[in-house]
Amino acid sequence: MTTHRIRVGIDVGGTFTDAVAVDATTLDLLGQVKVPTSHHHEDGVAHGIVQALDRLLEQTGRAAEDVAFLAHGTTQATNALLEGDVATVGLIGIGAGPGGALTRRLSSLGRLELTPGKRLPLSYAHVADPDDPDEVRRAVDAVTRDGAQVLVASEPFSVDRPEGEQAVLETARPHGLPMTAAHEITSLYGLAKRTRTAVVNAAILPRMLATADLVDASITKAGVSAPLMVMRCDGGVMSLDEMRRRPLLTVLSGPAAGVAGALMQERISEGLFLETGGTSTDISVVRRGKVAVRHATILGKASYLSALDVRTVGVGGGSMVRIGGGKVIGAGPRSAHIAGLPYACFATLDELRDARITTVRPMEGDPDDYAVIDAAGGRYAITMTCAANALGRVPEGDFARCDQDVARAALAPLAAVLSTDVATAAAQLLDKGAEQVRAVTDAMIRDYRLDKDTTVLVGGGGGAASVTPHLASVTGQEGRIAQHSEVISPIGVALALVREQIERIIPGAGQEQILAVRAEAEAAVVAQGAAADGVEVEVTVDPQTSTVRAVATGATELRTQDRAHRADENERLHAAAASLKADPSAVSVLARTPAHTVYGTEIRRRFRTARHPVRVVDADGVVRLHALDALVETTTVGSAPETLARLVADATSYGDGGVRAPALRLLLGSRIADLSGVLDPQPLLALARSELGTRSADESVVAVVEVRT
Q1: Mapping DSSP to helix (H, G, I), strand (E, B) and coil, where does residue 567 land?
Q2: Contact by Cβ (8 Å): 381, 339
Q3: Nearest CA to 598 among 636, 563, 624, 568?
Q4: Is the pLDDT of residue 130 over 90?
Q5: Residues facing 553 on adjacent strands
Q6: pLDDT band at 557 (very low <50, low <70, confident <90, very high)
Q7: Average pLDDT, stretch 40-69?
Q8: How far apart are CA 315 and CA 333, in angstroms?
Q9: Is the Cβ–Cβ distance between 155 and 194 less than 8 Å?
Q10: What is the pLDDT of residues 524-535, one digit of tens each?
């Protein structure tokens, strides 16, 4: 029997470090371990990472040389900012005249608040002429005397003219401090926002560098030859060298790991991922097979950090019930964890003897309407998890599963106070929690224009069963708990792709400039270890902001999965029909590639043109692409340039808003090349030609074309 190599994902949390081993070929989970996070060890969190890896290899019977991929996610950068544990930043502003006046204002970044009453430690010095070594040295000396541990150089328009920032850092190099230039962090205009992003990045740089060195040395000592990758906040991973340059990319990476796991393991194409812990639920979006990303707010200010769009609701598995006036009035935000109380449903029937309800104030300043049980075994919290178990919503083998009879006994005193039965009391508690979560999920469906009928709710995290099943039942949407939901984050780390995003502001960008940004993104992920033949690049051009954005993703090895189950023709047809809300007899096969089947139907509308919705289904029977109204045509690589030119010309619209090329997607081999982010026909066709690349002239290509409305 062939023993496949493994992919290892390690998620370093505040309390525990979770690690999983995934078969590199089948992507099946092979093993999982949990160890305490080693914050106070002399090697820091690196010790816990190696400890988890050792136990994982022992559990799976593998050796260090069997590790094909190793990545870890960490909350260290996030915690450093939350706790105010950062380095003093020496900011060197550059410029004379009006430009100098702009950079001098950057000294106000020292007023950024890390924690209540604690500001970002920053020392500012100014340089009029960056090519004057004496002036630069005086500025560097001034900030180091003030305690600067890391340097940032910033100059107006440095994204176009970086020489000034580079000259300052070159002169400062002998001081031996970690350094960064603002243009290296982002290539977008906006001096204040760009510098603020660079300064926050620098503030965590020394601490993250030290950790990176320890982890790297420890993994190498353990005998792992696979390059160490680190989870990014946008759902991908980056090389350790890239993390050393831009550690800020690890901020907010915790939720990103979970949605990456849902995307890769659960193969969501359109849906919401709800990662539920004990106290809160993080909600994120997957749209057309991609995670939703936006510029994050850091320390209360806008930044150029592209991070997962995650919205947090204060409802989790441990959220406590609140009562008043003989009814349930809320769930949370206080949880049993914060109150220091055990969950009632995890007690024994004997411990719940003589139970009676009382209300408490969990923390100073809280209302005194949180209901708890005083019983023979002590005081217990009535939680969302108790209610879910009482209703049988927690599946067998789930992390939060308990004896249903105990859960019902835990809810009985509450039901008596509410003058109802246990099932109704449990439902009322879950209703209050789901109500808060639904407000956010509905908003995200609107914001991203998801099709509510096809949007699936996927729950992850240890408290998934307390939120997602009930939310699905009250909304009527499809819902499920992810496999191995309690370790979905390390699974996401193990399965994540190398990712890089390049952004440029290019007014009136032509096809050569757009292709250059695309090539830069592709080269960046290859440089970090992605296999060149498998890199995918999505390009978006925003005509309103003149922003050209290229997001490249790729695996460190070409994946040739040999999954035991592939959906047959009937399964794929029914998956498409269910998504289209149509009878299978009304659904037709429009095109095929070795990896995908394209299905469509026709919706006739009175006095209006018929609509032709399309679904692209992969070999596993998963819908990978939704199109509300599309034209589908099959051609070959050799004929594609002429065919695509005709299709794009026919579907391009003209109006007061300018020229709008259609949303174009190409099915090539095992890939879906998404070119829908480009509105100008000529760059769109140039990108399409670049996707065809060096493929064989007789290879089939399927074009899915949507006219923009």
Answers
A1: coil
A2: yes
A3: 624
A4: yes
A5: 499, 536
A6: low
A7: 89
A8: 6
A9: no
A10: 999 998 888 888
CA angle, residues 581, 582, 587, in degrees to nearest 5: 130
Tell whether the torsion through CA atoms of 630, 634, 637 and 640 is positive or negative: negative
Find the radius of gyration of the CA atoms of the chain. Answer: 27
Q: Which of 632, 536, 537 is nearest to 576 (CA)?
A: 632
Burial of 610 (0-12, 13-18, 19+ CB in 10 A): exposed
Measured from the Cβ of residue 570, the count of other Cβ atoms closer than 10 Å reads 10
Residue 457 has pLDDT above 70, yes or no: yes
Q: Give the pair of three-digit tokens for residue 265.
A: 């393991």
* Amino acid letter for position 159: V
Other CB atoms within 10 Å distance of the CB of residue 378: 11
- What pLDDT score was predicted for residue 563? 47
Q: Kindly report the number of other CB atoms within 10 A of residue 367's CB atom.
A: 14
* Spatial CA neighbour of 552 closest among 575, 579, 532, 582: 532
* DSSP-derived 3-state class of residue 136: helix
Residue 1 has pLDDT above 50, yes or no: no
Which pLDDT value is given to residue 3?
63
Report the C-alpha gap between 254 and 260 in whole angstroms.
Answer: 10
pLDDT tens column, 565-613:
577 899 999 989 988 889 999 999 999 998 899 999 998 877 778 889 9
Confidence of residue 263 (pLDDT cuts 50, 70, 90): confident
CA gap 233, 305 in Å, rounded: 9
Q: φ and ψ at 24, to 5 degrees?
A: -65, -20
> Coil, strand or helix: which one is 199?
helix
Secondary structure (DSSP) of 404-434: HHHHHHHHHHHHHHHTS-HHHHHHHHHHHHH
Mean pLDDT of 469-485: 92
pLDDT digits (tens, 9 = 90+) for 395-432: 988 889 999 999 999 999 999 999 999 999 999 999 99
Share of the chain above pLDDT 90, in %: 60
d(CA 378, CA 228): 47
Tokens, residue 385: 């998890």
Contact between 134 and 222 (Cβ < 8 Å): no
Distances (CA, A) of 220 to 162, 247, 466: 36, 21, 41
Q: Listing from the earlier edge strand, what are the strands of the sheet with 623-627?
A: 588-592, 596-600, 614-618, 623-627
SS (H, E, C) 253-296: HHHHHHHHHHHHHCCCCEEEEEEECCCCEEEEEEECCEECEEEE
Average pLDDT over residues 70-88: 84
Label residue 564 by pLDDT band (50, 70, 90).
very low
Who contacts 327 (Cβ-Cβ below 8 Å, separation ≥6)? 418, 428
- Cα gap 601→595, rounded to integer Å: 21
554 phi, psi to nearest 5 deg: -170, 155
Q: Residue holding tokens 């440089």? A: 527
**Token match 């180091």: residue?**
144
* pTM for this entry: 0.82
Residue 376, helix vs strand vs coil = coil
Determine the Cα angle at 151 with ends 522 and 506, to 5°: 35
pLDDT at 559 over 60: no
pLDDT exceeds cutoff 80 at 23: yes
Range 368-390 average pLDDT: 96
Top-confidence range, 398-402, 403-407, 492-496, 536-540? 403-407
Angle at which helices 511-527 and 681-692 pack, to 10 degrees?
40
- Report CA-CA distances (Å) from 538 to 284, 513, 561, 672, 677: 20, 15, 23, 10, 8
